[in-house]
Amino acid sequence: MFPADLPLRYRFLLRTYRWRRADAVPAARLRVPLADARVALVTSAGLVMPGDTPFDLAMKGGDWSYRTIDGDADIAGLDMHHKSDAFDGAPIAADRNVAFPLDRLRALAAAGEVGSVAPHHLSFMGSITLPEHLLRESAPAAADLLVADGVDVALLVPV
Amino acid sequence: MCHQTVSLVQVALERRGIVTVSLSVMPDITRTLAPPRALVVGAPLGAVMGAPHDAERHLAVLRRMLALTSRTDVPVVDQW
Fold first, then answer.
1. Residue ranges of the domains in chain A?
2. pTM (predicted TM-score)
3. Chain B residue closest to A156 (CA)?
């Protein structure tokens, strides 16, 4: 079952690809009520802060590095570097919230539905077909960063 | 590939004690990847939160993701 906009060649690729599944981990538990929780976003849209290093769209197996996006960033000004043509980039170009809903998270924090917006959010470039470096290096490093920021909850949005 | 990337990052965060919830538009792949908590929505890959500027929809999706943070019977796949 695939989204209607996914081109046929990707349907074939996704049916035959050997998916890499991380080892199961025990469930984390909220240490505080949601109204006190610090929330971070993670996107795979390849968004970067203006002037930050672009993702390398030519890297074999996909650029496994990550960027941080400041919690007070103006998301309309974020640049997008994404290798895949499996999706229509127009919605994200029109409104970054469709892939990185930072404005919406701020609204929930302002309404007291969550405690706070984390000082840093994570951006990856989703088209990583060889994920070993992601598994061993960038994902754990990104996790360290969110832990250091005291993040309680992470919401992840694929592109 | 994006769902795999997100799932691998998600597990790395959960392993460090952060409660994680991801969105998905491909339920079969998400069941294979088995991240701790996932919300499956019907949406195009380039706009999984909803249409541009549809703030009400975006907020509703985030609220439903946040509602899953109390679940510890992982892996959880919630279908919208």
1. 33-157
2. 0.95
3. B22
